[in-house]
Design a protein that fits this description.
Shape: elongated
CATH architecture of the largest domain: 3-Layer(aba) Sandwich
CATH topology of the largest domain: Rossmann fold
Oligomer: single chain
Order of helices and strands: EHEEHEEHEHEHEHEHEEEHEHEEHH
Bound molecules: 6-O-phosphono-beta-D-fructofuranose
Number of strands: 15
Strand order of the largest sheet: 3-2-1-6-7-14-15
Distance between the termini: 58 Å
Structural class: alpha/beta
Radius of gyration: 22 Å
Length: 360
């Protein structure tokens, strides 16, 4: 066993299922295998911007039942870039040094940051500036972090969306309706494509494949003519209007958020086909609840691998799932490329082979 270490762990960005399973795995491995100390940092980097810092001392007993729990027991934020932090008086301030100073004052030997590409980019910038020994763990229901085939939270989100589709088939069929299910995923169509195939959707629309309303209408009308008097459509939240306009909702503080494509399609399809349409927006249900077994396995494997990288003092790395196993790559390389759906890839070919309409 090497020298005793004191490591920090934080969750950053939008929550998802599986985060607590990672924290549990890191705590178990760091304490039980290596005899280290594990400090949870609350609310992402916000927890290191206060004095005293907001911390949660982690031990094996505390985390033992966290395996299945949704959300993050450490809290998180997807706002407040410390390099341009929005202050109460409306000004913007670089608060990066406060975080770096607190990391060193806490005597941390390393920091594990669980985040998506945006969070990992910010954490890496802090690490480079302040000599923080950083290890990244990819999480996001969007599954869009480069270099890893899977990110924590994605499988659970696909399970939730698939279950919704399974349920909606019955009610759509009972009323001869077209039901449109809007799913999350930001600019990547992974949730829509995976859940669409698993949940037997008749139409799948993703941002990576431009569509024509006329193609969808023709497909639905043909289904109807063949005696299939209902249809289920899954659409990814970042799909644009037919002429390429992003569909967004304005929130408080002038922030735009994706959302509304389901309603847009419902109106257009009703006009074009005379079908009765209904919309289900799954929203944050896709991030909540008990994590799937696959996410628990991924989270556990990533947590253990992150601790082993620290034991070897290999920093500035992100753990990844590649070719059926855990590996690691430099964080810079991992976040360089955004991973969206390959429009010529296996799953798109599968959908086409099943006769699913992709709108093109
Ligand atoms: O990145 C994860 C994600 O859930 C996206 O799929 C979605 O567009 C966004 O976060 C929602 O963010 P918020 O929680 O701020 O509404």
């Amino acid at each position: 066993m090497g020298a005793k270490k004191r490591i920090g762990i934080l969750t950053s960005g939008g929550d998802c299922a599986g985060l607590n399973a990672v924290i549990r795995a890191v705590t178990h491995c760091a304490i039980s295998v290596h005899g280290w100390e594990v400090i949870g940092i609350c609310k992402a980097t916000l927890g290191l911007m206060t004095n005293p810092p907001q911390l949660m001392h982690l031990d094996v007993n505390k985390v033992d039942r966290w395996l299945t729990m949704g959300g993050t027991m450490l809290g998180t934020t997807n706002k407040g870039d410390p390099f341009a932090f929005p202050m109460a008086d409306g000004s913007v301030k670089d608060r990066s040094q406060e975080i770096i100073d607190n990391y060193h004052q806490l005597g941390l030997d390393a920091l594990i940051g669980i985040g998506g590409d945006g969070s990992l980019a910010i954490l890496r910038k802090l690490a480079q500036q302040g000599g923080i020994n950083l290890i990244g763990i990819p999480k996001t229901i969007d599954n869009d972090v480069g270099a890893t085939e899977r990110s924590i939270g994605f499988d659970t989100a696909v399970n939730i969306a698939t279950e919704a589709l399974d349920r909606l088939h019955f009610t759509a069929a009972s009323h001869n309706r077209v039901i449109i299910v809007e799913v999350m995923g930001r600019d990547a169509g992974h949730i829509a494509l995976n859940a669409g195939i698993a949940g037997g959707a008749h139409v799948i629309l993703i941002p990576e494949i431009p569509y024509k309303l006329e193609n969808i209408a023709t497909y639905l009308t043909k289904r109807q003519a063949e005696g299939q008097d209902y249809s289920v459509i899954v659409v990814s939240e970042a799909v644009c209007s037919e002429n390429g306009q992003p569909i967004q909702q304005m929130q408080a503080f002038g922030q735009a958020r994706l959302g509304g494509i389901g309603q847009y399609l419902a109106e257009k399809i009703a006009d074009l086909t005379n079908a009765e349409t209904r919309v289900t927006v799954l929203g944050h249900t896709q991030r909540g609840g008990i994590s799937s077994p696959l996410d628990r396995i991924l989270a556990s494997s990533f947590g253990v691998a992150a601790v082993e990288l620290i034991a070897q003092e290999k920093y500035d790395q992100m753990v990844v799932w590649q070719n059926r196993q855990v590996d690691y790559v430099p964080i810079a390389e991992a976040i360089k490329n955004y991973r969206n759906v390959d429009s010529e890839g296996t799953l798109v070919k599968t959908a086409r082979g099943l006769g699913i309409c992709l709108g093109d």
